[in-house]
Amino acid sequence: IIVNYKKSVNIRNMINYFIFTPPMQYEIFSTQKRMIQWKTFMKLLVQLMFLYFMTAFILLQFILPEMLILKNEINDNIVLLGIVFRIMLAANLVWMVSMYLNVYETYLPAYAALCGLPQTFCKDWWNSETLTVFWRRWNLPVHNCLKYNVALPLIRCGYSQSASNFIVFAVAGIIHEYLNTFPFGIYNGMAFVFTLLEIPAGYLNVCITKKFGNVYGNLFLWMYLIFTHCLAIISTFLFHVPHN
């Protein structure tokens, strides 16, 4: 079906294809009548509730107790290393459950099923050889939104690729800060800082991939994700919770 973009921009389509649909930008899918996939929606809804419970369980049972110990002074390096290692495992498990399984494999597909829209929200990000490829595959709605509404307009206005990338990551950092810390009353800017660290890490990842191959590039990617998720949680907690 061929859709004329200018003629398709109206109040009804803005409501149907932007406000009440999963994509973060106006996007016409089809002019045909949409059918709500109730069976798929109900199945994903049950799965969503289970994953929310699992996320809360991991946070309360595995991360919070270790954080309470970590905020006290620890003189034994072995004990400290063990605490950090356990937080690292739990933090990445929370990331996998809450973001990948919960958001991209359950919540957004359930939203799409309720709207009757076919939509892909992420690709095989785990096979990414660089952080650049990872961000293109990890969160397609946000990636497309930032690409078409921030990056490409900046380049058309004469900004360099580097300047455009910095502004895009700065905007992404603000979004991460708002979504990850503001709901908990934490305003320390750590989510913003860790998002900006993606820029130099991405360049380093590209160099490693070019010199040693895709396998080592993917290995660096996973090591970076594992360590930064752990550091982000620890730094956010330690900066926010006062020491005894």
Automatic annotation (TrEMBL):
<feature type="transmembrane region" description="Helical">
    <location>
        <begin position="162"/>
        <end position="179"/>
    </location>
</feature>
<dbReference type="Pfam" id="PF03062">
    <property type="entry name" value="MBOAT"/>
</dbReference>
<keyword id="KW-0472">Membrane</keyword>
<keyword id="KW-0012">Acyltransferase</keyword>
<dbReference type="InterPro" id="IPR004299">
    <property type="entry name" value="MBOAT_fam"/>
</dbReference>
<dbReference type="InterPro" id="IPR014371">
    <property type="entry name" value="Oat_ACAT_DAG_ARE"/>
</dbReference>
<protein>
    <recommendedName>
        <fullName>O-acyltransferase</fullName>
    </recommendedName>
</protein>
<feature type="transmembrane region" description="Helical">
    <location>
        <begin position="219"/>
        <end position="241"/>
    </location>
</feature>
<feature type="transmembrane region" description="Helical">
    <location>
        <begin position="185"/>
        <end position="207"/>
    </location>
</feature>
<dbReference type="GO" id="GO:0008374">
    <property type="term" value="F:O-acyltransferase activity"/>
</dbReference>
<comment type="similarity">
    <text>Belongs to the membrane-bound acyltransferase family. Sterol o-acyltransferase subfamily.</text>
</comment>
<feature type="transmembrane region" description="Helical">
    <location>
        <begin position="78"/>
        <end position="101"/>
    </location>
</feature>
<keyword id="KW-1133">Transmembrane helix</keyword>
<keyword id="KW-0812">Transmembrane</keyword>
<keyword id="KW-0256">Endoplasmic reticulum</keyword>
<dbReference type="GO" id="GO:0005789">
    <property type="term" value="C:endoplasmic reticulum membrane"/>
</dbReference>
<dbReference type="GO" id="GO:0046486">
    <property type="term" value="P:glycerolipid metabolic process"/>
</dbReference>
<feature type="transmembrane region" description="Helical">
    <location>
        <begin position="44"/>
        <end position="63"/>
    </location>
</feature>
<keyword id="KW-0808">Transferase</keyword>
